[in-house]
Amino acid sequence: MFEWVIVAVLVYLIYYLVTKYERRVAVLQELIELNREAIRANKEKIEKNKSKIEENSSGVQKNKETLELSQSLLEKLK
Predict the structure, then answer these.
(1) How far is the C-alpha of 20 from the C-alpha of 13, rounded, in Å?
(2) Separation of alpha carbons 42 and 36, rounded Å
(3) How far apart are CA 13 and CA 21, in angstroms?
(4) Strand, coil or helix: what is 62?
(5) What are the pLDDT digits (tens) for 51-63?
(6) How confident is the model at residue 52, as a pLDDT?
(7) By CB neighbour count within 10 A (0-12 exposed, 13-18 middle, 19+ buried), where does 37 fall?
(8) pTM of the full predicted structure?
(9) How large is the average pLDDT for residues 17-33?
(10) Which pLDDT value is given to residue 34?
């Protein structure tokens, strides 16, 4: 009789641990999916901003040339 109580307690313990593990896995799976969506959104933002960076790089280059020209003129005036 005592053995059956031990077996029942062990079965209940295993059941409890398995359900707890399954809940944890479900939560982790949900978090992983949310992370994947965030990664996808960030990749789209990166692609969108690459074109803006390329557009602005020509403006930066022009500003650099203007600055260098201004500095050389200032040096000549000194």
Answers:
(1) 11
(2) 10
(3) 12
(4) helix
(5) 888 888 878 888 8
(6) 85
(7) exposed
(8) 0.55
(9) 97
(10) 96
